[in-house]
Amino acid sequence: MEEFFQQLTNGLAVGGIYALIALGYTMVYGVLKLINFAHGDLFTIGSYLGLTLLTSLFLSDRLGPGAGIVVLALMVMGLVALVGALLERVAYRPLRHSPRLSAVVSALGASIFFSNTLMLIYGARFQVYPQGILPKTAIDLFGLYVPLVRVLILGASVVMMIALYAFIQKTKIGTAIRAAAIDQDAARLMGIDVNRVILMVFLIGPALGGAAGLMVGLHYGQINFTMGWVYGLKAFTAAILGGIGNIPGAMVGGILLGVIEALGAAYLSIAWKDAIAFGVLIFILIVRPTGLLGERVAEKV
Amino acid sequence: MSLLSLRRVTKSFGGLTAVHSVSFEVDSGTIVGLIGPNGAGKTTVFNLITGIYRPDQGEILFNNTSLLRLPTHRIIALGIGRTFQTIRLFQNLTVLENVLAGCHCRMRCGAVSAMLGLARHRKEEKKAIEQAMNALAFVGLEKSALQQAKNLSYGNQRLLEVARALATEPKLLILDEPAGGMNEQETAALIDLIRKIQEQGVTVLLIEHDMNLVMRVCEKIVVLEYGSKIAEGSPPEIKANPRVIEAYLGTEED
After folding, report:
1. Residue B244 lies in a domain
2. Are A171 and B114 contacting, i.e. CB atoms less than 8 angstroms apart?
3. Domain limits of chain A?
4. Gyration radius (Cα) of chain B, Å
5. Could you report the predicted ipTM of this complex, rounded to two decimals?
6. Chosen from A77, A96, A177, A190 to mutate, greatest number of chain B CBs within 10 A
7. Taking CB atoms and an 8 Å limit, are A200 and B125 in contact across chains?
8. Which residues, other chains included, contact B41 with Cβ-Cβ below 8 Å and sequence gap of 6+?
């Protein structure tokens, strides 16, 4: 039983990370009907920026471990959001009225550009996060000892998801984002600046992805310039699993995928981890092609 | 005084001239009808006014401001509201949220204050909900505020489009076939509604195929055929105009 709960909390933490990345895919898809293939690399950029800021600013020494990590996370999120906005401006906006395939090719190009830039700057080897940023203690959860990092990751991702959901549901910009996702022309005729909505989406999604990158660095301790590909693919799977374009869907899909993967790896075989994740995707697509929370799309005749 | 003025506006799509050198004025406070056979270029004119298309030639002035270089959302902010020929509501949002989307351009607070949950922002959101409810009450949909838009009846969806356009606080409201698909009773209610909108001081420009409605509410009618203006005048003048009768009924052969 102990083993089961350890795996469950591990799966929830990894699932939280997947969910944060998946939100970036699903929001961009919702508004632009574009899969931002460079999103996984924005996540990696978050990881590397976190490393650089950690080793150059010594925030934990100056502000204490608690405030230090919060400030660090905010800086990483802000910087990755800027990279995301820049990506939209340079790689996607000029292609707004081109066939969709052009934007997809541009996204793949941006992905290669980002990962290679990281390699040139940091080198191709694994980079190691400094130790002791977070105390290596375990937290007692109902008699179960769970590492602090894991609890923090899950807590932080849940807080960010709730904040995002409230923002999308309750504020006027949230309403504008949802309106633009349904019908851009009609949104314009309501006086909504669709370009600003798209910019918002490319600020929020990458910010969450960057936070996820930082979490992976803190959790696993080592990062690599190619890791965005695997994490991106898993998060993309999570987004499809929950129903692409659907924000709660990405959250549910991410958490679910993390848990299934962790339990599958523990009880079946660790070598089958990825096969299990993608097997679930294939199964869901056969049974429910719109994803778990996806809207049933009415056929237009 | 003319609120909207089109001056020799031309728009071609490839070899097809959809709108050819069309000029007309919409005076402040009036109800103007734009009519013509199918494919005459009526909706294209609306799309040119709202910046969805750009004219090849000509000038469009609203309150003496040229609309030619403005993006659509800026044109809406100047005070032009519009509904669509085919219903284009935000189907998965509630009725209230649809209208709130229309309040968007009248709200000032940005993303940062929303994220910080500032008091000023909360006050503005509250005011927007109040305005949206007023717009819904104006068209008689306040009881359906929390339903999803797609669950409304067809006639009510049309009314919701009007409420949503009114929420942008337009000086000029452009209605594209508002009575399309409505039964006689609903059309009668719509006529009352259009007059009520005019009483609020809003100028109305509408496309409509229901001649009964057009003749009853419009003070001036502009007739298009094959992208060109063939007549302009009061309802009795238009009814008596031989060019218009020919366009609608064809010429008699003898």
Report:
1. yes
2. yes
3. 17-232
4. 19
5. 0.79
6. A190
7. no
8. B11, B18, B19, B20, B22, B224, B226, B227
CB contact under 8 A, B101 and A183: no
Are β-strands B31-35 and A222-223 bridged in parallel, bridged antiparallel, or unpaired?
Answer: unpaired
A172 lies within 8 A of chain B by CB: yes
Q: Does A74 touch chain B (CB under 8 A)?
A: no
Is B94 part of any domain? Answer: yes
pLDDT value of position B123: 80
- Decide if B254 is inside a domain: no
Helix (H) / strand (E) element for B12: namely: strand B2-13
Q: Which of A195-199, A225-229, B208-212 has the lowest mean pLDDT?
A: B208-212
Each residue's pLDDT tens digit, A121-140: 999 999 998 887 777 778 77
- In chain B, what residues touch A175 (CB-CB under 8 Å)? 93, 97, 100-101, 104
Q: Report pLDDT for A300.
A: 40
Using a CB-CB cut-off of 8 Å, the residues of chain B touching A190 are: 76, 101-102, 104-105, 164, 167-168
Which residues, 6 or more positions from B92, have their beta carbon under 8 angstroms from its beta carbon? A182, A295, B148, B149, B150
Chain Cα centroid distance, residue B70: 18
Do the Cβ atoms of B90 and A182 come within 8 Å? yes
Average the pLDDT over each of B110-119, B216-225, B239-248 and give the range with the smallest value: B110-119
- What three-state secondary structure class fits B1? coil
CATH number of the domain within which B12 lies = 3.40.50.300
Q: Is residue B126 part of a domain?
A: yes
List beta partners, residue B6: B24, B60
DSSP state, B188? H
Which residues constitute the domain of residue B6? 2-249
- A-chain CB neighbours of B125 within 8 Å are 170-172
Provide the domain count of chain B: 1
